[in-house]
Design brief:
Blueprint (H helix, E strand, L loop, with lengths): L3 H8 L8 H6 L1 H10 L4 H10 L16 H25 L1
Length: about 90
């Protein structure tokens, strides 16, 4: 089970931006995002999630994510991108 405070701290997100749908219906996706968060592999995972025939897209035997989950994934992708930019800027 995910610990909400740890997720918020790891993602550096506000409590009102907490990915509730992912936690409730797709905890494996949220766990993977948390696992990869500060690594270069996180961006690749988001790319795969957001591709039409990737993990999140409607493969023939899957319906894909509901709209609320898509919104959370897009928001987390944006947070990830901003975090990577901050980390890169701090290294220069």
């Amino acid at each position: 089970m995910l610990n909400k405070e740890i997720v918020i701290e790891t993602l550096h997100c506000l409590p009102n931006a907490y990915p509730q749908m992912l936690e409730k219906r797709f905890p494996h996706v949220l766990n993977k995002i948390i696992e990869l968060w500060d690594s270069p592999h996180c961006e690749a995972y988001f790319t795969d999630l957001l591709q039409p025939n990737g993990r999140g897209g409607g493969r023939l035997n899957r319906d894909g994510f509901p709209d609320e989950a898509w919104q959370e994934i897009f928001q987390l992708n944006e947070l990830c991108w901003m975090r990577r930019t901050e980390l890169e800027d701090s290294q220069h």
